[in-house]
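Q: Hi! First time asking for a complex rather than a single chain. Here are the components, and I think there are two in total. Is that enough to go on?
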Amino acid sequence: MDALEIARWQFGITTVYHFMMVPLTIGLGLVVAVIQTAWHRTGNPEYLRMTKFWGKLFLINFIMGVATGIVQEFQFGMAWSEYSRFVGDVFGAPLALEALLAFFVESTFLGLWIFGWKQLKPGIHLACLWIAVIGSVFSAYFIIVANSWMQHPVGVEMIDGRPVMTDAWAVFTNNTALVAVPHTLFGALAVAGGFLLGIAWYHLWRRLRDGVDTVGADGKVIPGESADIPGRDRDDHKVWLRSLRIGAVVAMVSFAGTALTGDLQGKLMFEQQPMKMAAAEAACHDGTGFSVLSIGNLGSQDCDDIVALIEVPGILSYLAKGDFTTEVQGVNSLLPQYKEAYGTHLPDNPIYGERAGQEIDYLPVMEVTYWGFRMMIGFGGLAALAALVALWITRKGTVPESRWLMRLAVFGILAPFGANAAGWIFTEMGRQPFVVAPNPDPSGIDQVFMFTAAAVSPGVSAGELLASLVTLTAVYAVLLVVEVKLLVKYIRGGVVSAMPELVQAPVDENEDATPGAGGPGGGKPGDDVLAFAY
Amino acid sequence: MELLPTVWFIAIAVLWTGYLFLEGFDLGVGMLMKLFARNNTERRVLLNTIGPVWDGNEVWLLTAGGATFAAFPLWYASLFSALYLPLLVVLVALIFRAVAFEYRGKVDTDRWRARWDWAIALGSFFAAFGVGAALALTTTGLPLNANGDREGGPLAWFSGYAVLGGLAVVGFSLIHALAFLALKTDGDVRHRARTWFVRLLPVMLLPIAAWALSIQFLEGKPWTWALVLLAVAAAAAAWGWARKGAEGKAFSALGAFLALGSASIFAAVFPVVLPSTLNEAFDLTISNASSSDYTLGLMSIVAAFGLPLVIAYQAWTYWVFRRRVSAAHIPEAHSFLPAIAARAFTTKG
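A: Yes, that's all I need. Here is the structure of the assembled complex.
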């Protein structure tokens, strides 16, 4: 592997990893904020418990997103200095604004939320969470604006060989970004939905297995109480059943959302990056049919080797144009157009290193684009279908006793993660061989593009890149084990793992009949310097 | 006169100074976890003084980096790629440190805590050292060619200035953290922090003073020399106030020392943002490394509203958590049954 390939692997690994934490942060953050709002408005104790429990898991995950996010910002300059020089005038701004307008908000107000349970008035405390969550949504917006400019550059003019921003409004309202943002947010919510559903299922199942809950003759659940574990009372049953239902509804709604926005994205992509969509379909020839299964050696990059085994006529045209008859261009028609527009060989410029003068392969790795596209849709749809089934199965208030169903629900948490990762891998690998894809709109800036081969840092050696690839991958692997272990520990502990106060006052928490007995937390006076989270 | 690049040079200097001021004390507190705290309760006192704020402090680094990318892409590209390995160390250090803060208290065993304590202390040390080295080198220069790429291999950046800069930020962070702890804690920790502060201040500020002075000898102008003198006066004032027990004043004076010292360095090197040690013609300056006026103008408008807002709500956070933390406040570690169902996945029904 040379420096370019190592740098690409590093970017891919660190980004996919970072984007396991991020959707859960965004999705779960929104869900926790809604639940705390429900608690604020109704005062129902189960909403407080849900806020605390899901909030704890949210924080365990949040910190990993923060820690791995710094790598993202640094690595543009470290490993991709030529890219940074080329795009800096337009790409740097959304990154800087993300830090200034989103990260500050997110980190500061989350700190207030974590440590301010007693210092802030309840309404302000709740507002802090909402502000932090909105900050994370804004951060998604800014980074997708930056990414969308790589997919579809707008708002610039070429001056001295570099794109210079001339229309910020065009950059920040890039249509590619405006559909990618909701698509990504729905994808994040789908992750949160599956997370709630799987974990809540596990707890309902466990209550049943331990004999805390029983099922009556009519099939309806009879919630019970268990003395040995604090907080395992009737409210606890409500916590999990409500979480399960919220999770299922969120999963279904967000899948519908990803489908609708994904459809819009597809239509744009057929215009903006036709080769990416042709590669997503492994479509060699022009046609109207959507491939359900194509065989042949997708990796050979020889398009004629591929046979579409099962094809649904008309669907591809619908994805591209909204009708069932328009012919969509396949790879064989597109290749000559790309060669004509952007050249057949990389220029003889030292910026391309050893690759200078090589022939350009305009076809992305079709194994990845074809299967990435299908895994995204498949995992997403599967999770939504499972959520629907889960709602039906649990309509009488608990889950079946089956251990296998419980395992399925728990491992099903991974499906939306898989869909998110597959979607991003598809869209980023499908952009190749460009790092900044040319914009074929008739707007006259189709010469604003950059080959990935020119983007890597010329002064950085393959050895340095390999050192960082190995180091970061190892560190990330270790931390993934630690994070999952901690999540499992807190999940198994149940609500009490996030609520020490349940140990002190297990039963009376929603009775006001004992005035002056302890108060919130029941601690010593002076305890309220801050909520001691560390 | 290039107005907007100058404005952004100042803005980036302000962001770095803000970063060193804010994260300075939490990096220092991180190192003091091993150097100063005597037992687990004291370590928790230390951690909870920075608990609500450290993450927000760290965003100053991200903003300084992002603003450099946006305003001076060539500076960002050359500096970050030339310092590939040291910045990798900074990244790994920051990752472990961040995770350690959050995870340290999540398992109630001594072994678990001891590991994360090391992660916090070493993570803080290497992050401070690496950032200091990078900042020093951007003022003294790197072996860059005409394209702004490093010549001479992965370690070509190394020089005495890298070490000096590293020690400067480590030393400043430690002394700043002692001032912060004296201000934010009570009881034994508070008194020891003040004693340590008074004893250690001259030594700890030596490397940062040496850096500021060597820049003055290389590039200084009369008025930047004056800033150095004022900085020294501020440090002396901090020391005097700390001796008298005026912790708030001592902390503020140390902050003034940082601001003046940092200003003296940035002002002396202006308008060069990253000199090349190979050829003066390859120096990156505010004119040849900056973005277009359009981009800088847009960023100026946003920053003019955004940055004061950030400062306002971060200040409010410090106000909310203004009360001193002491060992007596620290609650028992919360341990809960590791589960309702540890065996759910391993045994048969």
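A: Chain B touches chain A through 91 residues (CB under 8 Å). Let me know if you'd like any chain examined more closely.
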